[in-house]
């Protein structure tokens, strides 16, 4: 069994995060220009301040990018621990791929139609998959 197989999903989610970063700025910068916002003169504030002046559809990409910096940090940590500990193959790799696929689906929903219940359902499934990975790591490293 390839105990490093779990690193494929890790690399994929990291790359997907950068895709969302590009998509965020590809939509946000033109929207800021249309709204006559001069970023060079902005002092302080955060991207959240733009929620009040940019169209929601533009900000959805930014919100999703932020989400990819939150819960997936647990995924990265547990996946890397499983890989280093020799438990990154088999079912754990399959679960990692499921998690990444669900997070990409979550991104696409949030960045396009942003139906909250759809997002919630996909997020919940992804969270359960991540919980399974965490339990497997705990079992493998603590209860072994």
Features:
mainly alpha; single chain; 5 helices; elongated
Q: Could you explain how this protein is built, in words?
A:
The protein has 144 residues and is mainly α. It has five helices and no strands. Helix 1 runs parallel beside helix 4, helix 3 (72-84) runs parallel beside helix 5 (116-141) and helix 4 runs antiparallel to helix 5. The chain is elongated. The two termini are 19 Å apart.
Could you give the topology of this structure?
Layout: H1 7-34, H2 56-67, H3 72-84, H4 90-111, H5 116-141
Helix pairs in contact: 1-2, 1-4, 2-4, 3-5, 4-5
Summarize this entry quickly.
Helices cover about 70% and strands about 0% of the residues. With about 140 residues, the chain is mainly α.
| Poorly predicted runs of 5 or more residues | none
Number of helices: 5
Beta-strand content: under 5%
Helix proportion of residues, in percent? over 70%
Helices and strands, in N-to-C order? Answer: HHHHH
How many beta-strand segments? 0
Mean pLDDT: 95
State the end-to-end CA separation: 19 Å
Which structural category do the helix and sheet elements fall into? mainly alpha
Shape designation? elongated
Largest β sheet strand count, sense and barrel closure: none
């Amino acid at each position: 069994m390839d105990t490093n197989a779990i690193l494929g999903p890790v690399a994929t989610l990291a790359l997907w995060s950068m895709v969302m970063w590009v998509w965020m700025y590809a939509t946000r910068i033109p929207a800021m220009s249309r709204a006559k916002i001069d970023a060079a003169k902005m002092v302080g504030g955060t991207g959240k301040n733009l929620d009040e002046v940019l169209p929601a559809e533009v900000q959805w990409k930014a919100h999703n990018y932020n989400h990819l910096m939150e819960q997936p940090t647990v995924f990265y940590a547990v996946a890397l621990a499983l890989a280093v500990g020799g438990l990154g193959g088999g079912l754990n790799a399959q679960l990692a791929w499921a998690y990444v696929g669900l997070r990409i689906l979550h991104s696409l929903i949030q960045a396009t139609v942003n139906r909250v219940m759809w997002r919630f359902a996909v997020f919940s499934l992804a969270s359960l998959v991540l919980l399974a990975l965490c339990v497997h790591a705990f079992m493998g490293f603590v209860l072994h």
